[in-house]
Write a structure and sequence with these properties.
The structure holds 2 protein chains of 2 kinds. Chain A is an all-alpha fold. Chain A has 26 helices and no strands. In chain B, the strands form 4 sheets. In chain B, strands 6-7-8-3-9-10 form a 6-stranded mixed beta sheet, sandwiched between helices. A 5-stranded antiparallel beta sheet of chain B has the order 13-12-11-14-20, with no helix packed on it. A 5-stranded antiparallel beta sheet of chain B has the order 15-19-16-17-18, with no helix packed on it. The chains are: A mainly alpha, B alpha+beta. The complex binds adenosine-5'-triphosphate and magnesium ion (MG).
């Protein structure tokens, strides 16, 4: 670098300066990007819900925009119609049971986790989270294998001469068991989040002041966990009200819940009462979520507790009550993990009907699955839809995360961010029938595109959670530095921002892919002839289980485990690189 | 505030800059001219608006009012990308996904410099900042001081007119700060770049600058060379901010040209002053401790020829500072700081005569706000 060169460069720069090229203002770009998202959400989220609302207010159950009716007859029927009333009561009773059992089991587990060393707690938490990665359908299938007349539990009871066979499947007991297994990880995470922030020296302090162990727990510890506990109970309860698949597969003929009722009615085009119950369900859910959020902050939606608080510092001494904590934790792990272990051997068995222990060994069912056109076309369709959903959801989430991050902190931002999470709150059965309704009008029903749009509505909020977190970790000074070096905003975005969130971008793609890949309820209404893989499995489960389902289930579990493992390896390598970066 | 004759070309100029954050004023009518090739320090306490001013220069913030000129061209509405300024962030803002060499190469790529020349310039820059052989490392694999030098190299490699630095040494320890500061000064001189350097460390400002601009509460309080500011602080704030000083408050008795007589503690003190004061006004003057002499009663020296006595008093404290000692004196009911040679034998409790050089006291304008 010599001084004439420098002078030359500076003269050039001087000539350039001041003559700025006109370009669209930033706000315009943002608006142009936001408009298609707004349109998509309006068509596939707002319009469906509005349609259901209009139908619920019409005596004939027809949504007419020309002359909308405001008739509350359908809502009155919820209380006057004996059949419907019993369904509503049954739904609430089942939800109450599931919530109570989940809470009783989750509390000791979360407490134990909050007192364990960080390392051990992370391992147990990881085990508890495994079911999150496995399709609900496959978990339910596993429960049919566990609880069936010739299933694992009854076989074990017989082997131990404990009597039986007990009827554990296709009744309310099975439904509650299935729901508890689904809800446990959520409840444990919420309680653990609350508990790990509580300083255990507080109860010790109470004891030095003369409180007995029980008094200290009741007067000091409980008041501190109460917000998390109540928030968790509320959340679990409203989630329980919206369960569709669990009662549909594990329940008996009398186990009709609100979501099943809605599905049955819509299938025969009786929209009126179904819509009204749906709106009631939505209202209860929204209120429940709102209270839970108020009590426990936005931590609920983020899901994961950020770190180990101080609770880990005071080691847990062994005592009879500590032993009980471990017993509860063991039980929970069995409930969560045993079903996943059971399906693998089942898929290799030789007989037509599934029995336990499996008889013989054959790869026959795998061959069947991979050569049968029903399965292969279903796999292909699911893959294409999931791929489309992954790309669309990640793109939407990226734009939203950037736009919201650029907004000033305040009410508007809070409202917009709240709306982004709205699809997570709406019971999925309601979305399913609403989107079905709208897409029928738009002639999109049955197409891959229609299903991609529908799945994107439930997948993009998850992708948003991942990406907004990642973007918040990119120092704004990095972007500003690139600008001062001469990079345009677009160029900065692609060369500085994107490379720094690459692993999260990948994570967002995986999460939205898996969400679509596993989704049943929306797809059930969307695919009459050409079914997705989960819908095919669902139909098989409804019409009598075959070992081919076990084979396909094993394949699916393997795919998800593989995807997650690859994700961990990739992001792990990046994180390790980043950690080395930070440490030096 | 003129730092040089208006005729000498200014690399950077601010005219009447104001800035408000949601109604709260952060900068209030700031004007400044920095001539080409100079190293200018913005010095001021935390919250005085230094960063805000620097970001306005860079184009990262738009001023509420006022103009920014680079090379006599109005760039107030020019986007940051086209201003051609180098900016060194306090956190360095090195791109973690690029190597050291790629970080430095980044602005050259943007300017479509051809590959051979890019390589040469990066190599030259690595040499200039003393990091040859570090090109392939990731920023995270460098020490804080090395990262800082990469940040400077990256900001200089495209030969910007002006280099803006926001407390670039703030995160480093004192020794390293001095070393790097000197290095930075050398690089700035070699490249002939105009530098604006933000700091709240007075020692750093004195060590590095051609000119120092003292800011407080969003205003420029005084600008000039270190020596000018130290010897002739314009107001109470500047006098107090730059080193220790003795402040004597009193009433103006009269003025003869640039000499104002102040009545302090029942005696008269003559002070230098550039502005006019009316008799009876409240005012204060500053006298640096090194200009205050404390002679044991009875002894006669060492003292300057133009010595003016102030009164007699006692030594209350003595602090050893190496070759010199800092004394705390009680004179005429006031506490004054003075300096002597540490071997002068002035102990705590000694009765002393206190005075100073005739031209030591400077009259200060009362600072507003
Ligand atoms: N983004 C902002 N929003 C609102 N007020 C701000 C913002 N940035 C700075 N301010 C305010 O403007 C004033 C000047 O801030 P500035 O960062 O320029 O100070 P500074 O001199 O750089 O201080 P420091 O030495 O602490 O870095 C402060 O009162 C600060 O609170
Ligand atoms: Mg600052």
């Amino acid at each position: 670098m010599n001084s004439t060169e420098i002078q030359l460069a500076r003269t050039e720069a001087r000539a350039r300066r001041g003559k700025s090229i006109p370009r669209p203002p930033l706000v315009l770009t943002r608006v142009l990007l936001a408009v298609p998202i707004f349109v998509l959400v309006a068509i596939f989220l707002a319009w469906p819900l509005l349609n259901v609302l209009l139908r619920s207010l019409s005596p004939t159950g027809v949504a007419s925009y020309g002359s909308p009716s405001f008739d509350l007859g359908n809502y009155g029927a919820i209380f006057s119609d004996t059949v419907l009333r019993n369904i509503v009561i049954h739904t609430f009773v089942v939800a109450a049971w599931a919530t109570a059992i989940t809470t009783l089991l989750a509390f000791p587990v979360a407490y134990l986790l909050s007192r364990l060393s960080r390392r051990l707690a992370t391992v147990i938490l990881a085990l508890i989270m495994i079911p999150f990665w496995i399709s609900i359908l496959i978990r339910l299938f596993a429960f049919t294998q566990l609880l069936g007349r010739e299933g694992v539990v009854n076989s074990a009871a017989e082997a131990l001469h404990l009597g039986g066979p007990y009827s554990l499947l296709f009744n309310t007991t099975a439904v509650v068991i299935g729901m508890v297994a689904y809800l446990l990880p959520y409840m444990i995470l919420i309680l653990y989040g609350g508990m790990s922030g509580i300083d255990p020296t507080l109860t010790t302090a109470a004891k030095t002041l003369g409180a007995s162990g029980r008094q200290a727990f009741r007067t000091i510890y409980m008041p501190l966990v109460r917000p998390a506990l109540i928030a968790g109970v509320l959340l679990i309860f409203v989630l329980s009200l919206g369960f569709f698949l669990t009662p549909a597969i594990l329940g008996g003929a009398t186990d009709t819940t609100i979501p099943i009722y809605i599905q049955q009615q819509v299938e025969v085009f009786q929209w009126g009462k179904a819509s009204a119950t749906g709106i009631l369900l939505l209202a209860i859910t929204v209120v429940g979520f709102a209270f839970a959020l108020r009590l426990n902050g936005t931590g609920l939606l983020g899901g994961r507790p950020t770190g180990k608080g101080m609770a880990g510092r005071e080691p847990l001494r062994f005592s009879p009550s500590t032993a009980l904590l471990w017993v509860a934790t063991g039980l929970v792990l069995v409930v969560l993990l045993l079903p996943l272990v059971v399906i693998v051997p089942t898929s290799f068995e030789t007989t037509q009907s599934l029995t336990w222990p499996p008889r013989g060994f054959t790869m026959h069912w795998y061959g069947d699955v991979l050569s049968d056109e029903i399965w292969t076309t279903a796999i292909l369709k699911s893959f294409l839809v999931a791929l489309g959903t992954a790309i669309l959801s990640t793109a939407i989430a990226l734009v939203l995360a950037r736009t919201i991050a650029a907004m000033r902190q305040g009410l508007v931002r809070a409202v917009v961010e709240g709306l982004v999470f709205a699809p997570l709150v709406v019971p999925v059965i309601l979305l399913a029938v609403g989107i079905y309704d709208v897409e029928t009008r738009l002639n999109l029903i049955g197409t891959n595109g229609g299903l991609i749009f529908a799945h994107t509505m439930i997948a993009f909020p998850l992708a948003y959670i991942v990406l907004s977190g990642a973007l918040a970790n990119v120092d704004p000074a990095l972007e500003q530095a690139a600008w001062t070096l001469g990079a345009s905003r677009a160029r900065t975005f692609w060369t500085v921002v994107i490379p720094n969130i690459l692993s999260s971008l990948f994570g967002a793609l995986v999460i939205s892919f898996v969400t679509s890949w596993d989704e049943v309820v929306i797809a059930l209404f969307q695919t009459s002839i050409q079914k997705t893989l989960p819908v095919t499995i669902f139909s098989d489960l409804k019409s009598g289980v075959q070992p081919s389902v076990a084979a396909i289930a094993t394949l699916l579990v393997a795919v998800v485990v593989l995807a997650v493992a690859v994700g961990f390896v990739i992001s792990g390598r990046r994180h390790r690189g980043a950690r080395a970066t930070a440490a030096a | 505030m003129e730092l040089a004759q208006a005729s000498s070309p200014a690399a950077l100029e601010a005219r009447g800059i104001r800035h408000e954050f949601a109604g709260a004023s952060a900068l209030d009518d700031v004007s400044l001219r920095v001539p080409r090739g100079q190293f200018c320090t913005l010095l001021g306490p935390s919250g005085s608006g230094k960063t805000t001013l620097l970001r306005i220069f860079a184009g990262l913030l738009s001023p509420t009012a006022g103009q920014v000129l680079i090379d006599d061209t109005d760039v107030t509405d020019t986007p940051v990308q086209e201003r051609g300024i180098g900016f060194v962030f306090q956190s360095y803002a090195l791109f973690p996904h690029l190597s050291v060499a790629q970080n430095i190469e980044y602005p050259l790529r943007l300017r479509r410099v051809d590959k051979a020349r890019r390589r040469r310039q990066v190599a030259d820059m690595l040499k200039l900042i003393g990091l040859e052989g570090y090109g392939d490392r990731r920023p995270g694999e460098l020490s804080g001081g090395q990262q800082q030098r990469v940040a400077v190299g990256r900001a200089l490699v495209f030969e910007p007119e002006v280099l803006l630095l926001d407390e670039p040494l703030g995160a480093l320890d004192r020794r390293l700060r001095q070393q790097l500061g000197v290095q930075l000064r050398r690089i700035q001189k070699e490249t002939g770049t105009t530098a604006i350097y933000v700091t709240h460390d007075q020692e750093e400002a004195f060590l590095l600058s051609d000119v120092v601009v003292v800011m407080n509460e969003g205003r420029v309080r005084q600008a000039g060379t270190q020596a000018e500011l130290y010897a002739n602080p314009a107001d109470l704030f500047v006098a107090g901010f730059l080193g220790d000083t003795n402040l004597l408050h009193g009433k103006v008795k009269g003025q003869a040209r640039d000499l104002v007589t102040l009545e302090v503690c029942g005696t008269s003190v003559d002070c230098r002053s550039l502005s006019t004061f009316s008799a009876g006004a409240e005012a204060a003057c500053s006298i640096r401790p090194e200009d205050v002499y404390a002679l044991p009663v009875g002894s006669d020296g060492p003292r300057p020829d133009d010595w003016v006595p102030f009164g007699s008093g006692t030594v209350e404290e003595s602090m050893f500072l190496g070759s010199r000692a800092r004394l705390s004196l009680q004179v005429r009911g006031k506490r004054l700081l003075a300096e002597t040679k540490s071997d002068a034998g002035v102990e705590v409790g000694t009765a002393v005569t206190v005075g100073w050089r005739r031209d030591a006291p400077v009259l200060l304008a009362h600072s507003h706000g």
